[in-house]
Structures are given as C-alpha cells and as structure tokens.
Write the structure tokens for this entry.
Amino acid sequence: MRIFNRKARHDYFIIESFEAGVVLSGFEAKSVKMGRVDLSDSFARVENGELFVKNLYIHPFQTPPQGYNPRVDRKLLLHKRQIETLMGKSGQSGITLIPLSIYIKRNFVKIELGLAGSKKKYDKRRAIKERDQARKLEQELSPD
C-alpha cells in the first residue's frame, strides 16, 4: 500500500527524489500499514546532521499510550553523505524537502522525499490548462 501526497506535485516542482526509512514505534507502523497517514502539510528538515519529518500525522492505532502526539517529529534514516547533499541543496532559496509518498518495502516503512521548488500561481494554471488539453485530445482520439 502506498499513500501519496497529492498536493505536493500540484504545489511544487519536484527536482529530485530520495527514499528514506522512518523510525516508528510498533503501533505507528501498524497504522501506516493500514493506510491511516496524512502527508499533507508535512515537510522534512535537517537538524544537527539528522533528518526529521515534521507535521506528519499518523492516526493512533486502537488506544495509543498515554501522552501520544500524532504529529511528533519523526527521524528519517539516510546515509550521512545523502544528508549532507540534502543539507546543501535545501539550503538554497525556495527549495524544500517534501514527503511525496509513504509505503511498505520488505516490512520496512519507507518515505519518498522530494527536493522541491514552489510553483507560482501562473505555473499551476499552465499545468491545469495542459492537462485539460491532453484530456480533450484523448477524448477526440478515442473510438466511441
């Protein structure tokens, strides 16, 4: 099962993508396997040489432990060199790290991060216009 961040590709240009592991507790991993995750409004940031995803909402599985915060910062697992390159690239103006999807790979929870630059309003309009034109062309060419 793969959960996508639908707003990410609409609001940002994806320059490069990375796969990272996520440090979770047992009941959080069960919630991810059930698909009870919200990626919207989440982002990643490098702090003290470590990568963290912030504002990722994992809905509690059954009854969570006392004082559980579903939006706590979660550590991401990458190689040191990958973190250093991300730190250099994300330090540029207008570039952020956005979670694109979260999925299970060989019983490990993985998250796909995108190095993204934000789109302007006219870029979003252009993308919608191109999508509409492609849809119209496809409808005209399809045999009915």
In short: The chain has a mean pLDDT of 87. Residues 52 and 75 are 4 Å apart (CA to CA). Helices lie at 6-11, 26-33, 80-90, 121-141. DSSP finds four helices and nine strands in the chain.
